[in-house]
Amino acid sequence: MPKMTRRNFLWLTGGTGVALAVDPPRKLVNKLIPQVIPPENIKPGEWAFFATTCRECPAGCGMHLWHRDGRITKAEGNPDHPVNRGGLCPRGQSALQGLYDPDRLQKISFRPQRSGNEAVGWHDAIAAIGSRLKAGGRVALMSSLQTGSLAEVMKHFAAAFGSDRLLFYEAFSYEPLKAAHGEVFGLPLVPRYQIQECELIVSFAADFLESWISPVSFASQFGEMHGYRNNRVMNRMVYIGPRLSMTAANADEFMQVPPGAERLVALKMLRIILEKDLGKNNLSSISRTIERLVAEAPELPGVEDARLVDLCRTFCSARSSVALAAPVGSTGPMATETAIVAALLNYAAGRIGQTVDFSRHHALSDVAGDGQVRRFLASLGPDDTLFIHDTNPLFSRGDAALPISRAGMIVYLGTLENETAAASDWILPIDCPLETWGDYEPEQGIRGLMQPTMPRLYDTRAVGDIFLTLAQAAGRPLAKREGGAPVASFREWLTLRWQELHHKISPAQPFENFWKSALSRGGVWSRKEPAPNAQFSATAVGRLSPEAKQPRAEAGEVQVWPWGSIMLFDGRTANRGWIQEAPDPVTFIAWGNWIDINGRTAADLEIQDGEMAELKTGTGAIRAPVRITDEVAGQTAAIAFGQGHTAMGRIAGGIGANPFLLLGAGERDVSFARGTLRKVGGKRVNDPTYTTLTRQQWHRELVQWIPLSQVSRMEPGDGEELIMPLPEGYKPERDLYPKREYLTHRWAMVIDLQRCIGCGACAVACYAENNIAVIGKGKVGEGREMAWLRVAPYHKPGATRRLGWLPLLCQHCDAAPCEPVCPVFAAMHNEEGLNAQIYNRCIGTRYCSNNCPYKVRRFNWVNINWRKPLDMQLNPEVTVRSRGVMEKCTFCVQRIRNAEAHAARENRKILDGEIQPACAQSCPTRVYTFGDLLDPASEVSRLTREDPRRYHLLEELNTKPAVTFLRRVDGDW
């Protein structure tokens, strides 16, 4: 019971009743804390946004951070940024959960002899580490990929102590891609791939829509390249690889081959181009070598030469095309050779400088390769002070623990106590990327700015300031220029660097104006940088070796195929509830990972669906449940990276298995490792790790397809007539309920299924915008997830390896079956056509859910405990629901009301496209169109009435949905 004070007594006796007095969860707020010094440029009760750069992966997308009263509540894509063009992936949106993570490091930890903790302040920590540096010894620095000002500070810091051991380490280094371009063109770089205008993309197991280089950029370009527009031929994508990934499922053709066989398919394509003289560049000097390599290779079942000939003709004759290679996380000769052949294909078709653009090479070009990492680790000794910043090598490299432990002192700088932090002497808590100044250049010429988007939550420091302070404490202060004055703060260093950029980019403009413009825009970017000179070398072909004859596989022997998850990437986001609860796009599995094996492999091992199995290589072993599917090649075991943490936080710890343990040094040949698989017994029950969707439509035609040959002949207005959710759709002989009239607006949505790639960004955006609770692994396993929007995969009828995704939210029906059955009128129709849910009326009968044919309503089974400070992210304009009430999609009614109020203040009408629900705003491929059906000029009205691909979900039920779907297009070339 709360303490009974005079104030509480008066509050209770004011009509709230005894029930509140005996309810322990009831919160009593006894203090009002005024903002005596309010945050700068913040107006209480009004929205504001700050532009910054996302650092959740090396892609460097532009972000807008939405604020209310000085705290961030929503991350969205920056529409002006050339990388992501306004879209933002699930990981980028989850940056808020990284900022507000209850498990964040809040204070310094000192562990003498790496055991136990001692409380130490910043002054003592800087003094102790500085004293060691001052006394001599060597410095080594390992960091996640950095560019710009922070990279300069790190280089100067290492040089001040006579060291050149600065390593930018990422678990996914794209080493095969860089090595291939180095050998073929003399440019060991990761180029920018221009796929937007490609008429054909051929992917050799490069999952560019998920986690490959810059997935949001590729998704945005793919939406334009592969989307259907009237009177335009739709472009194609062919995927060649061992597993039906999300990228492969979006392909028009999926050629399933064993791991490593992508190289042979690429060689056959190159031989056909040379043999039939299809290319634009002369490669006759290598034709004999290619012919010999193909002749010595084994046959690949399912890959027809006639099909490859057609593919090669299209690849070379297209206005633009591209070949992509190198799976995420792969290293070794086979992966490099595949990338070399892909580079030769691009050169033969004349794509260098067109779709393969070295003028804007990616920052990943500076990431250390496997050999560099091994040499760095081997160099560590007891005289070294090793600084590890924002990376987790003890999780992503099985061979890193022993050499790192040899360092005399390990100083970890990060935001979470992960596996590497747990093995360190000093743990220094640093600012979250959303709390700090900085800059990042993801591609040459694209310079993104980072700014503190809210005050620090804890006693943390900027990384740049830590290195500057340590150098000062060691008696070696850092200066930006040789002979210049020491720089006191990282903000000063950043300003000096941007003053240099100002003189280079816009010298006529005052620096203050240049700086403010860059801050508000999120950075500066030039249209084109000078391209380095690519010199073709035929000697790279000598690197190619004959196809190795694989010995007959013994019982249980498999090829390990780990893959990069769009949600978890390399594991850095595993402690975030939104990410764990967001299902995998292909399997719809959440909260864990699993091993995919072929039915033949399962039969040989006598293992059943869902049974636990052990996957073992020469470097380690993991255990996970098995999923039996024909979506992977025979003798292949596929498992996602990112799970299996032993530290890092309460959410990530103990979830799933870590495939990095299988990939020690020397174990990544043939793209990845060979291993053995055996069943170990046990089966998971009611576990979202295995509770999968059937993906069958059962003749309900939920996701519909239309042949390209048919739709390309149709005119606007052709196709089926829809029952409109307007007065014109009312028919007395058919309708049970009276006609509805709308005076101002009738809000509606169009969802283009052809553009939907299944990434789930919209679903995570809905969580963030609408205060949707993360219910947890156990409750999801019981089917009690709370997502208002699910992007479920379904098989194309008759094609088991073709998927279409159905973003399913409330349909805001005109004749909504959920409304008349509610006994307390909690489900009701508002004056603008929305199916509203009045939470404080709801008594939880769940009649509405039973009567909803779309099953898009969610029931709160438990009261959610919002662990502090996660409650700071809650949107103040959306009610936080309690146990016992139904909830559902509202079309983001709070955004609608804000736009209406804004238009009313300006005495004007709402502009078409001015209102964007969170799902529409975040989508990288622009699947969603929202607007007013009463406005005949609106895009949503035009698409609903004229697009020949239009249809309503389950329209035969006469619910008159306000959501119109546009059919996927089946490219029947």
Shape: globular
Mean pLDDT: 90
Largest sheet: 7 strands, mixed
Intertermini distance: 72 Å
Find the structural class using helix and strand composition: alpha/beta
Ranges with pLDDT <50 over ≥5 residues?
15-35, 666-670
CATH topology of the largest domain: Alpha-Beta Plaits
Instruction: Bin the strand percentage.
Output: 15-25%
| Cα gyration radius (Å) | 29 Å
CATH level 1 class label of the largest domain: Alpha Beta
Domain 4Fe-4S Mo/W bis-MGD-type: 47-103
GO molecular function, one term: oxidoreductase activity
Pfam families: Fer4_11, Fer4_2, Molybdop_Fe4S4, Molydop_binding
Protein name: Menaquinol oxidoreductase complex ACIII, molybdopterin-binding-like and iron-sulfur cluster-binding subunit ActB
